[in-house]
Automatic annotation (TrEMBL):
Its main location: nucleus. It comes from Rhodofomes roseus. Residues 128-222 are annotated as: Disordered. Keywords: DNA-binding, Metal-binding, Nucleus, Transcription, Transcription regulation, Zinc, Zinc-finger. GO terms for biological process: nucleolar large rRNA transcription by RNA polymerase I. It is found in: Nucleus, Nucleolus. Residues 186-276 form the Rrn7/TAF1B N-terminal cyclin domain. Residues 132-156 have a biased composition (Polar residues). Belongs to the RRN7/TAF1B family. GO terms for cellular component: RNA polymerase I core factor complex. Residues 301-469 form the Rrn7/TAF1B C-terminal cyclin domain. One of its GO terms (molecular function) is zinc ion binding. This is RRN7-type domain-containing protein.
Length: 598
């Protein structure tokens, strides 16, 4: 530091040292004279400089103990275990459906075959059973090189021929190093190994020369992710749907959804139903993949089932039969409070519209092409089958009633509209049916019921539902006591809950449609029918038509726009058919007149 003396020029005592030049200056910038600045930078160390030596520690580091649970499975073994849980869940679902619907024993056989086909058609099939690898690990401790070679074999298979000669020679070197001296002296074995190495190296060189700058696939496989679209538990329901179609059972998608929401069909939170020997090996990700949060949608279930049926036919030539349309159509007619006359009219219109009755459009014969630009299939041919049927019923109802706010009455005695009920009574019955019928389960996730608003019977049903949905299977066995023996709960409400469509199936008397005089100016059935465009976002449907569409959508479990779109396509298709028919009749009459004049 500079001495605390005054500057001879300005008298200031504030000194500081400039870092760049090393000069001592006062606050005014005057340089202090006769000050020696010594440089202490050392460029070379002398022979007597002290230097601290770093001694290597001889203490052995303690290995960090793994906190992972050894009982949990990971990788391919976990994926194989995941499919084991799905298969056991499928067996539970088959047993539940057989008991609920009274299905024959052949249903289980069909489900087993469809399940095997489903596993073979997955984009990433399930891995092989890891039992052989487990036995090889537990046999002898000297088999570690073979074990490592066996573990890396799937990665080499996934990388194909691009692995290179170095990777191909590694297992051969490890095997040769661990082999006995007799095998090394065998000239035939040495020659075979040499030829195998030359063949693998030549094939890899050819592949690299042909593909050019193509990137090599890494040998290590990517981490398997649970929750793929076709590995989810919803595919079990798709297998059940295809099995029901194979046996021609008239089951709809909402039947499965309703059973899932009521916990009668094992699907929601199925881990509690699995044995402890399986659940102890499940990680949190596997449990999450096995436990869906809600019941599947009808569109998703139909997409998976139709895809499975298409792949079964295109890959293994397994044909899924057509839908048992007669009882399903009658259920659709009864959902709209229809009569047998409406059922007969719908069958005739469905035949004209060529409504597809297959699970996928590729399973039916393509359309006849008159011109090259003609399509081979119609739009909405791959729609939900029950939506197609109930859309045909709505087309017939529009032809009879109009559903546009304008009254239509028949004038002829043989008009089929005379056998149908009056429009006011019919629409009133549809509204009452839509308000009273429970298409979804009574206590499903979308229910708006509150516990404080329930009566005693509803509370008993809700507690029984909670016991079925929350408790494990072994905890549902209630000990017998005097209260349960002599005061059992009434089962009548439970039977009504299990049969949610009994209210909509009750027959009621409605007045028939009266015909009017021929001099009346009212519209006839099928006259001046409007076709509503579903892509018109600002447009609104008439009240009568919207009520019928909403009731049909609730019965099918889809959105209102989906049903309205199918109805629109069917109406335009029917209009084209009617135009071709009238044009053909006009051409035939003109030809007959021309032949008579000649």
């Amino acid at each position: 530091m500079a001495p605390r003396r005054r500057c001879p020029i300005c008298g200031s005592k504030q000194w500081h040292k400039e870092p760049s030049s090393g000069l001592i200056t006062c606050s005014e910038g005057h340089v202090l004279q006769n000050y020696r600045n010594e440089t202490r930078e050392v460029t070379e160390l002398g022979p007597h400089a002290l230097k601290k030596r770093a001694l290597k520690s001889t203490r052995k580091k303690k290995e960090r103990e793994s906190k992972a649970d050894p009982r949990l499975y990971h990788g391919e073994r976990a994926r194989y275990h995941y499919f084991q849980c799905l298969q056991l869940l499928l067996r539970m679902q088959v047993t539940a459906l057989t008991g609920l619907w009274g299905l024959p024993a052949e249903f289980e056989i069909v489900c087993r075959d469809v399940w095997a086909l489903h596993l073979s058609l997955l984009p990433v099939p399930p891995p092989a059973e890891p039992l052989s690898a487990t036995q090889a690990q537990s046999d002898t401790p000297s088999s570690k090189p073979d074990q490592s070679t066996h573990d890396t074999s799937p990665s080499r298979e996934g990388s194909g021929d691009e692995a290179g000669p170095e990777k191909t020679a590694e297992p051969a070197n490890s095997e040769s190093s661990s082999s006995s001296s007799d095998e090394e002296d065998d000239p035939e074995m040495v020659e075979l190994m040499r030829q195998a190495e030359e063949a693998s190296s030549s094939s890899s060189e050819d592949d690299e020369g042909g593909e050019g700058a193509q990137k090599k696939v890494p040998a290590s496989r990517t981490k398997t992710k649970f929750g793929r679209k076709y590995d989810l538990p919803v595919n079990n329901l798709a297998v059940l749907v295809v099995a029901c179609w194979t046996l021609r059972l008239p089951a709809t998608y909402m039947d499965f959804v309703r059973l899932v929401e009521g916990y009668d069909l094992p699907y929601l939170d199925p881990v509690r139903l699995l044995p402890e020997s399986l659940t102890t090996h499940l990680t949190k990700h596997t449990k999450s993949a096995l436990s869906p949060e809600h019941a599947p949608s009808v569109i998703l279930l139909h997409g998976l089932a139709s895809r499975l049926a298409k792949l079964m036919y295109s890959t293994h030539q397994v044909q899924t039969p057509e839908m048992n349309a007669a009882p399903t159509l009658w259920r659709a007619v009864r959902a709209l409070c229809g009569t047998p006359t409406l059922y007969v009219l719908t069958k005739k219109v469905a035949r004209v519209l060529s409504v597809p009755l297959t699970l996928h459009r590729t399973l039916s014969a393509p359309l006849e092409r008159v011109k090259k630009k003609d399509p081979t299939w119609h739009k909405f041919d791959n729609a939900v089958p029950e939506v197609s049927l109930i859309a045909t019923v709505i087309v017939v109802l529009k032809m009879v009633y109009g559903l546009d706010g304008k009254p239509r009455s028949p004038k002829k005695r043989n008009d089929p509209a005379c056998s149908l009920p009056c429009m006011d009574d019919f629409l009133g019955r549809i509204k009452a049916c839509d308000d009273s019928a429970h298409e979804h389960h009574r206590f499903c996730a979308t229910s708006q019921m509150y516990v404080q608003d329930m009566d005693n019977n509803a509370l008993d049903d809700y507690l029984a539902f909670c016991e079925k949905a929350l408790l494990p299977q072994e905890d549902r066995i209630v000990e017998r006591n005097a209260a349960i023996t002599f005061f059992p709960l009434d089962k009548q409400d439970k039977e009504m809950q299990d049969n949610p469509q009994s209210l909509s199936a009750e027959p009621t008397s409605m007045e028939a449609t009266l015909r009017v005089d021929e001099d009346d100016d009212c519209l006839l059935p099928g006259e001046k029918l409007p076709i509503y465009n579903t892509f018109d976002a600002l447009g609104s449907l008439p009240e009568e038509y919207d009520m019928v569409i909403r009731r049909a959508a609730h019965w099918c479990g889809v959105h209102d726009d989906y049903v309205a779109g199918v109805v629109e396509r069917f109406e335009r298709r029917l209009l084209r058919w009617w135009t071709r028919r009238t044009d053909g009749e006009g051409t035939d009459s003109d030809n007959q007149d021309a032949d008579g004049s000649v």
